[in-house]
UniProtKB/TrEMBL annotation:
PANTHER family: RIBULOSE-1,5-BISPHOSPHATE CARBOXYLASE_OXYGENASE SMALL SUBUNIT N-METHYLTRANSFERASE I-RELATED, UNCHARACTERIZED PUTATIVE METHYLTRANSFERASE. It comes from Eucalyptus grandis (Flooded gum). This is SET domain-containing protein. Residues 13-240 form the SET domain. InterPro entries: Rubisco_LSMT_subst-bd, Rubisco_LSMT_subst-bd_sf, SET_dom, SET_dom_sf, SET_RBCMT, SETD3_SETD6_MTase. Keywords: Methyltransferase, S-adenosyl-L-methionine, Transferase. The lineage of its organism: Eukaryota, Viridiplantae, Streptophyta, Embryophyta, Tracheophyta.
Length: 464
């Protein structure tokens, strides 16, 4: 039997009951970017259950293997779900027509569009300003590490079941790329992870909240629409409340600027090596599993209170050393909450006020008012240093990759560059907002202090 390499495409995707893959004539201007998706064939009401994929047609860690011996070896070695599914996909793909999943596998993309497929040089060139670059490098390293581990522990001992020409790093990257961009967690099946053929043709929209799940009444995987659709409209689900960076990392796309309410940017804060209390501060952080450099997610509406705690600790003078432990403990153990920007009494837009859902707690007492100004200045400095990196990239990107001598390379480069420009623009936008809020708060603090000082001097003169 000839083995087909995973990802070799043989035929088009698309079966449909009630839904069909969108076509060019649907007039969806974003359609080309999203690839195939599903379209309503008739009007759909809000609250309707759509799709229905029965459990035997879902791929999980318990699915039956075309090559049963390979499955048994992996189970005996207690291989966890993710690598098990990655190997399962490669194994089934290599069986070609004799795999029960051959139609599904042949419709999968040959190169899933995640950052796994960016070379190190591409990550360095286009994503230097964004912390997502680090996350991508970490992910690629993990995939390589997982493959190396399986090769030395299992594949090398059973070469007849796991031949190198089929089970190699290239095919691993492909199958992990497929998992990152298509695997779903099904809450009603104890959070089990699964590939759901056909349902995984659904594209993501930041404007919907609905997701795939097992429905016990119909005994299948469905999703419940949270808005109506007209016949011919593309139907969407949510891949989760992910930032633009996370969507690029796993799914290879960036939503349009300003359309993702879950968007955030990672801000890197670090202790200064020259800090006289460096080692005591580091010790206080380490006790809580934190390190000298930490990333914190900043959203357009606010940032986690932990970021503020880190800033307080970073600027605390040696005279406060007895409090270092307290600063970290106070915030990191008790309050895992978002500190909303409107807290800072900056001009509060209605949009921001609306963002203060009851799920979010806010705290007013900063507890260390004597160093608040330095802490805010410290965050502002980190914010501005990050903004300048984004601005440098965005400025230089205009003249990048204009070489037309290699059209194939050029297309890829332009595609990746556009994704990076979209990501950097959206991340910088959040930092600009944080910068504005911080500047206003610092100005208010300083003018308040100035007023207090003038009043004090006035009183002094009076009593002289
Ligand atoms: C679960 S699949 C959805 C089906 C996919 N469009 C296809 O053609 O096979 C996820 C992939 O679809 C694409 N995608 C999903 N939602 C998108 C969106 N809103 N914008 C751009 N691409 C999207 C991305 O390439 C992503 O990796």
């Amino acid at each position: 039997m000839r083995r087909r390499l995973p990802g070799e495409r043989v035929g088009a995707a698309g079966v449909a009951v009630g839904l069909r893959p969108p076509a060019a004539e649907d007039g969806d201007p974003e359609g080309r970017r999203r690839g195939a998706g599903l379209v309503a064939l008739k009007n759909v009401r809000k609250g309707e259950k759509l799709l229905f994929v029965p459990p035997p047609l879902v791929i999980t860690a318990d699915s039956e293997w075309g090559c049963a011996e390979a499955g048994e070896v992996l189970k005996k070695n207690s291989v966890p779900d993710w690598p098990l599914l990655a190997i399962y996909l490669i194994s089934e793909a290599s069986l070609m027509g004799s795999s029960r999943w051959s139609n599904y596998i042949s419709a999968l993309p040959r190169q899933p569009y995640s950052l796994l497929y960016w070379t190190r040089a591409e990550l360095d060139r286009y994503l230097e300003a964004s912390q997502i670059r680090e996350r991508a490098i970490e992910r690629i390293t993990n995939v390589i590490g997982t493959y190396d581990d399986l090769r030395s522990r299992i594949f090398s001992k059973h070469p007849e079941l796991f031949p190198e020409e089929v089970f190699n790093l290239e095919t691993f990257k492909w199958s992990f790329g497929i998992l990152f961009s298509r695997l779903v967690r099904l809450p009603s099946m104890d959070g089990r992870v699964a590939l759901v053929p056909w349902a995984d043709m659904l594209n993501h929209s930041c404007e919907v909240e609905t997701f795939l799940d097992y429905d016990s009444s119909s005994r299948g995987i469905v999703f419940t629409t949270d808005r109506p659709y007209q016949a011919g409209e593309q139907v969407f689900i949510s891949y989760g409340r992910k930032s633009n960076g996370e969507l690029l990392l796993s799914y290879g796309f960036v939503p349009k600027e300003g359309t993702n309410p879950s968007d955030s940017v990672e801000l890197l804060l670090s202790l200064k090596k020259s800090d006289k209390s460096y080692s005591q501060k580091l010790e206080a952080l380490r006790k809580h599993g934190l390190s000298a450099s930490q990333c914190f997610p900043v959203q357009i509406t606010g940032w986690p209170v932990e970021l503020m705690a880190y800033a307080y600790l970073a600027v605390s003078p040696p005279s406060m050393s007895s409090q270092f432990e307290k600063v970290v403990k106070f915030y990191f153990e008790k309050y895992n909450v978002i500190l909303l920007f409107y807290h800072y009494k900056a001009s509060i837009s209605l949009q921001l006020a609306a963002a203060a859902s009851n799920k979010t707690t806010t705290r007013k007492d900063m507890r260390f008012p004597e160093i608040e100004e330095q802490a805010l200045q410290y965050i502002l400095d980190s914010c501005e240093s990050s903004i300048s990196k984004y601005s440098k990239f965005l400025q230089e990107s205009g003249s990048m990759d204009l070489d037309v001598t290699s059209p194939k390379q050029l297309n890829r480069r332009l595609f990746l560059k556009q994704l990076a420009v979209d990501l950097c623009t959206s991340e910088r936008r959040i930092l600009f907002r944080a910068q504005y809020i911080l500047r206003r708060r610092l100005r208010d603090l300083r003018s308040g202090e100035l007023r207090a000082l003038t009043l004090f001097n006035g009183l002094r003169k009076l009593f002289k």
